[in-house]
Write a structure and sequence with these properties.
With 247 residues, the protein is mainly alpha-helical. The chain has a domain of 90 residues. The strands form 2 sheets. The protein has a two-stranded antiparallel ribbon with strand order 1-2. Strands 3-4 form a two-stranded antiparallel ribbon. Strand 3 and strand 4 form a beta hairpin. Helix 3 crosses helix 5. It is extended, with a radius of gyration of 31 Å.
Length: 247
């Protein structure tokens, strides 16, 4: 919005107005009238990309990979064809396809699609890493999970989410790897990431299995709430979790 001055003969302005700066400023405001400037259309790079049709594309991708043999070359070739006519990588559709495959527990296909996305430099997010770690866990690929975890840990040290730490601890708990649980928990403490209650119990169980009951109690007291809710006589009541400081 700009301004221009209306025509106003300066000879008609009383000298007393000119000498009085407050009155003269009032005169200027009276003479100004707004003029709308014609500007260029604004383009915002942060606008959400159009995801129209991404759901159908995702279902199409799921259908394609579900009918393929397990060879890497066949899967990657089909996925490349799926994106052949796209002007930009269909990241939204690929992410939706991963979620569908995850819900269907098609862990091998989850691994194949996620690895293909990462090989294209796409989808390198904590959500993708979480899904891939879960798939490695369910498909008994602990070695590959550890390789991915170490890569994430060394490249995203200060931005690893609590969920990803919990995922790795759950993986080690699932495969009874107690020492590894303690290692991941040590990284959590070093980075000041507070574990959730489920993770705390898995860490405490690992200490117990290793015969470190003092550390088990320390972890429980440090990270679990002092209070817990129980049902008593049909009502939900809050009671102390620990009866005494020694418990």
């Amino acid at each position: 919005m700009g301004f221009q001055f209306a025509e106003f003969p300066i000879s008609n302005v009383p000298k007393s107005w000119v000498d009085n700066r407050w009155a003269f400023q009032k005169l200027l405001r009276m003479c100004r009238k707004p003029v709308k400037k014609v500007g260029k259309n604004e383009h915002h790079l942060w606008k959400k990309r159009d995801s129209a049709g991404s759901g159908q594309k995702a279902l199409n991708l799921v259908r394609i990979v579900s009918q393929l043999p397990n060879e890497k070359e066949a899967v990657y070739g089909a996925l490349d064809k799926w994106t052949a006519w796209e002007t930009e990588f269909p990241l939204i559709a690929a992410a939706k396809a991963l979620r569908i495959l995850r819900k269907r527990s098609q862990w091998l296909r989850v691994i194949q699609v996620a690895k293909w996305m990462l090989s294209k430099g796409q989808g390198a997010t904590m959500g993708t890493y979480d899904t891939l770690l879960l798939a490695f866990d369910m498909d008994n690929r602990v070695d590959e999970a550890e390789l991915l975890w170490n890569m994430v840990l060394h490249t995203n040290t200060r931005s690893i989410s609590k969920r990803l730490f919990s995922r790795m601890i759950s993986l080690y708990d699932h495969h009874n790897m107690q020492e590894k649980i303690i290692e991941v928990f040590a990284d959590m403490e070093e980075l000041h990431v507070r574990p959730d209650e489920n993770t705390v119990r898995k860490v405490a169980h690992a200490f117990k299995e290793l015969g470190l009951e003092d550390k088990q109690k320390l972890v429980l007291r440090r990270y679990l709430s002092k209070w817990k809710c129980i049902h008593f006589n049909g009502e939900r009541v809050r009671v102390k979790r620990f009866a005494s400081d020694e418990d």
